[in-house]
Write the structure tokens for this entry.
Amino acid sequence: MTNGGGVSGLGVIYKVLPDGTNYSVLMNFTGAVNGSRPEGSFTYDGTYLYGMTSTGGTSDLGTLFKIKTDGTGYVKLKDFTGTLNGSTPKGTLIYDGTFLYGITSLGGAWGQGDIFKIKPDGTGYTNLYGFNTSIGLGLKGSLCTDGTHLYGMTNSGGLSNKGIIFKILPDGTGFSTLLNFNGALNGANPLGSLTFDGTYLYGMTENGGSSGSGVVFKILPNGTGYVKLNDFTGIINGSNPKGSLIFNGTLLYGMTRTGGSSNSGTIFNITPSGTYTKLWNFTGGTGGFPTGSLYLNGGDLYGMTTSGGPIGAANGTIFKYQLITTDINETNFANSFLISPNPSNGQITIKVAEITGSCDLSVHNLLGELVFSETIKEKSTGINLNLKTGLYFVSLDNKGQKAIRKIIVE
């Protein structure tokens, strides 16, 4: 999706092949009828793509919709209206097989945003929690889950008015603040989402830290064990990240919006223990000021910049960064762990490029319960999960090399 452009200038839904060919527009957003200015990414359930717009709809306060991958079957599931159900949704929806969960940055009971859930057919909409200045405000990223709780961050509010990390149960109970950001010590003003590796939650802040340019951190789901993994400082390692980290089982990858050699942003990786490596400096001609998060497919990272590109245009780029052996280090196992098809009916094929002896495969549901386990000895193994419809976490452990993937069973 784009936040602008298209026939109406209000954004489009598009598709394009990974090599940049076969670009096509699936739908133009037009305002009151189907929304405008989309935010975040799509969530896919095997049939429909689900997304949100930050404006448009009947009250011009945003919409929630679904559409098929060929551009047909568009359905507006919800018009956001303000006090009753929030307004100006942000981030990306998450799906547990029954409900879609998301956030609005404004509206709701206190006017400062809501956490909500809704069924894929548009029924069952529920406000789970409303925010205000004392609790936290400025919900910007997306929710994440460890299978039991939903986790998220606010950009401001809390004890120091620099944002918080929170968790809440999917039924709206059990809300608690895990951390108050305070500036130099632990960061300030997060804009992205948290990433869960099975043990720690990882994230970034746009500001704060030793240079005021943001940090990378990790924290345990119970709110203990906070560690600042990296202070962004500018030219050397980038500054002011606005997106989220992605995890391939061994390394975390991310971008900074500014800093680097040309002050146009960077691509980097960092280990869970805090070893930082800068992979790329954006220079303008190759794109500049990246936003959002990276997507990892095999050995390639994909992303977007908000400016840069050919001289005379400089309106932003879609890019691919190919990881080389020194970038990947010992992550070939994690990068090559593939599940297909996904979504599936439970009949799947697990593929890895390299395997030492055997792998331990385990599948957990959203409650954290082990629902399937098996030992894999081949590079390609067919498995029948025989699980009910829903979202699951598939973990693979090959002599200490670990990787985690999400899978939807239809």
